[in-house]
Design goal:
five-stranded mixed beta sheet, globular, 7 helices, 24% strand, alpha/beta
Amino acid sequence: MAKKKYYVVWVGETPGIYGSWRECQLQIKGYPNAKYKSFKTKEEAEEAYGGSAMHHIGAGAKKPKAPAQMSEAARAAIIWDSMSVDAACSGNPGKMEYRGVDTKTQMEYFRLGPFNKSTNNIGEFLALVHAIALLQKKGLNDMAIYSDSRTAMAWVRNRKVKTTLKRSAINKDSFELLDRAEQWIKANHYKNPILKWNTKEWGEIPADFGRK
């Protein structure tokens, strides 16, 4: 009897973890540049799905560097007691989701999506506002938040969204969330530092989906 495997789909119709090859095939068949891989245990699949596809597929497959493996200079420059946010979009516009994680442990605080026919910039903005609101609710008013999106950081700073994406019935859910987020950021004061993640020096942001 064949041993059960778990299949991670990073890029496909609906990214996620699937318990059979048939389910996995439905997500990747005919999908351009689909990224997927099988794992022996559910725990391995969950860990892989929370990270980057590039660390598990092809010649570049390797585990991301742990904080202890970074250079002293890199470690000293990062505020580890912080949250990191990121978004992923299969196509732009396309299926979008976003999340926030603990910068040091990569423990996931929140994850929403996928949303149809949205953009990466919208996801990055929603992730930042979600992170700010969550930290405010927890009373962590001074905790820093890392983002690798200058566009999203500018939208938050200016409290104004400047997307060129057209509203439609298909992306109604993400636009409703976007409107609420913009209203919230206009109505609320926050002190959390919003910091640019230095991808060139530190590698991918801890919240990265690996779907670029």
